[in-house]
């Protein structure tokens, strides 16, 4: 018999996984990992972001494979700098960022698969003799570790010429000099926390789907079971 089971815990699990997936995707594609300093003038004592906001400036920034900067003919322009992918020269695309890109992409793919798996658990509880909840939780832990590695590797590339041109010659691993950490980095960080939280919630979601009330509704012939 085909039936659908929806509980409050499984709904929270799905939403937590979906939001984590979206945050990791935002962190991957947006060029806001490092925000460069602006022409601060009298705002020299303020942070780059605060001063730029007050002055209406659009600051140069860089992400894992994208950047934004002022160009003479195009004005403020955002685009990719990994024109040859992983084969791009290391002075343009640091090796550490290439590895971070790999792990970030791996984490995003795993998270996207777990979003589909959370929906699948509404109809099926096991596959190939294994609990889908447990397999999904393992995939979410692996995704969280992959994204965490990416967030660790990106600062290792801050000694690259690209970063020193943006942030100053003092830039080095884990010290951004005149730059500040951008919103993309924090999106990735929150995504990691939600990913690990979702892995923990999956175990509770499995037990909630196996409650006596749920089994009774299924045995009575209900095809749609919604229980808070």
Structural class: alpha+beta
Largest sheet: 5 strands, antiparallel
Distance from N terminus to C terminus (CA atoms, Å) equals 23 Å
Give the strand content: 5-15%
Radius of gyration: 22 Å
Count the helices. How many?
A: 7
User: Which word captures the global form?
Assistant: elongated
Low-confidence segments: 39-46, 51-55
The string of secondary-structure elements, in order, is EHEHEEEHEEHHEHHE
Average pLDDT confidence is 83
How many beta-strand runs?
9
Spatial ordering of strands, largest sheet: 5-4-3-2-8
Helix content: 40-55%
Question: Can you put this structure into words, describing what you see?
Answer:
Helix content is 54%, strand content 13%. The chain has helices spanning 8-29, 48-55, 95-120, 132-156, 161-167, 183-209, 212-219, and strands at 4-7, 34-35, 61-62, 66-71, 75-80, 126-127, 130-131, 180-181, 224-227. The chain has a 5-stranded antiparallel sheet. β6 (126-127) and β7 (130-131) form a beta hairpin.
Write a short abstract of this structure.
This protein is an alpha+beta fold. It contains seven helices and nine strands, in the order E-H-E-H-E-E-E-H-E-E-H-H-E-H-H-E. The protein starts with a strand and ends with a strand.
């Amino acid at each position: 018999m085909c039936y659908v089971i929806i509980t409050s815990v499984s709904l929270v699990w799905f939403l937590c996984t979906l939001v984590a997936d979206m945050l990791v995707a935002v962190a991957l594609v947006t060029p806001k990992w490092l925000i460069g300093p602006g022409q601060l003038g009298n705002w020299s004592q303020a942070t780059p972001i605060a001063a730029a906001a007050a002055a209406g400036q659009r600051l140069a920034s860089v992400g894992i494979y994208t950047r934004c900067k002022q160009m003479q003919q195009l004005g403020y322009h955002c685009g990719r700098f990994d024109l040859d992918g992983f084969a791009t020269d290391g002075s343009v695309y640091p090796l550490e960022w290439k590895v971070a890109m790999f792990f970030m992409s791996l984490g995003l793919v795993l998270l996207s698969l777990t979003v589909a798996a959370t929906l699948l658990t509404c109809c099926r509880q096991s596959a190939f003799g294994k609990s889908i909840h447990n397999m999904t939780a393992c995939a979410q832990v692996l995704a969280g570790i992959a994204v965490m590695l990416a967030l660790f590797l990106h600062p290792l590339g801050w000694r690259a010429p690209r970063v020193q041109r943006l942030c100053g010659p003092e830039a080095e691993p884990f010290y951004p000099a005149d730059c500040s950490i951008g919103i993309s980095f924090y999106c990735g960080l929150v995504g990691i926390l939600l990913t690990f939280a979702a892995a923990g919630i999956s175990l509770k979601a499995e037990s909630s789907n196996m409650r006596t009330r749920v089994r009774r509704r299924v045995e009575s012939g209900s095809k749609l079971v919604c229980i808070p």
